[in-house]
């Protein structure tokens, strides 16, 4: 579980790795619908300079009852952290000035470029945007 300060290290890096940071929650229908495509992409990019981090906005009271069972049922291997910071006005602009706060939202970056998507992404769109960062 992280707060705004704990979120900051996930938002920038000087390494050669490409990072895909997805903000989601189990109570968000579009988030749950897109998750299999994120899992597929993460599996496909194993062994490459790529890291997926799923930042859950689930309520702390739902971690045991909803989040953990969802992770187990879907065999999610990406890093998952729970963001528990009620002051969203403080951390949303750290992610993107373009972000209204709606989820799903995805940040993709490496040390050379950065892009942000405040929308549901399917596998085809994910692959299209990621190929500008990393070779498949």
Compact summary:
The protein has helices at residues 4-7, 29-44, 63-73, 88-95, 123-130, and strands spanning 18-24, 50-56, 79-82, 105-109, 114-117.
What brief labels describe this structure?
alpha/beta; Glutaredoxin; single chain; 136 residues; 5 helices
Q: How is the main sheet built?
A: 5 strands, mixed
Q: Would you identify the regions where 5 or more consecutive residues have pLDDT less than 50?
A: none
Number of domains: 1
Overall residue-averaged pLDDT value? 95
Note the run of SSEs as H and E. Answer: HEHEHEHEEH
Query: How many E strands?
Result: 5
| Rg, Å, rounded | 14 Å
Relative strand content = 15-25%
Topology:
Elements (H helix, E strand, L loop, with lengths): L3 H4 L10 E7 L4 H16 L5 E7 L6 H11 L5 E4 L5 H8 L9 E5 L4 E4 L5 H8 L6
Parallel strand pairs: 1-2, 2-3
Antiparallel strand pairs: 1-4, 4-5
Account of the protein in words:
It is a single chain. This protein has 136 residues and is an alpha/beta fold. It has one domain: Glutaredoxin (3-Layer(aba) Sandwich). Helices cover 35% and strands 20% of the residues. It is built from five helices and five strands; from the N terminus they run αβαβαβαββα. The longest helix is centred in the first third of the chain and has 16 residues, at 29-44. The radius of gyration is 14 Å and the shape is globular. The termini are far apart.
């Amino acid at each position: 579980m992280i707060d705004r300060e704990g979120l900051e290290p996930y938002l920038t890096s000087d390494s050669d790795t490409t990072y895909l940071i997805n903000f989601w929650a189990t109570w968000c229908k579009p988030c749950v619908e897109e998750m299999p495509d994120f899992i597929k992409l993460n599996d496909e990019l194993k062994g490459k300079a790529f890291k997926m981090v799923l930042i859950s906005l689930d309520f702390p009271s739902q971690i045991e009852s909803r989040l953990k069972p969802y992770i187990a049922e879907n065999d999610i291997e990406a890093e998952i952290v729970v963001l528990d910071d009620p002051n969203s006005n403080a951390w949303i602009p750290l992610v993107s000035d373009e972000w209204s706060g709606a989820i799903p939202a995805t940040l993709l970056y490496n040390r050379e470029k950065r892009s942000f998507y405040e929308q549901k992404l399917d596998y085809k769109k994910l692959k299209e945007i990621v190929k500008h960062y990393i070779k498949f």
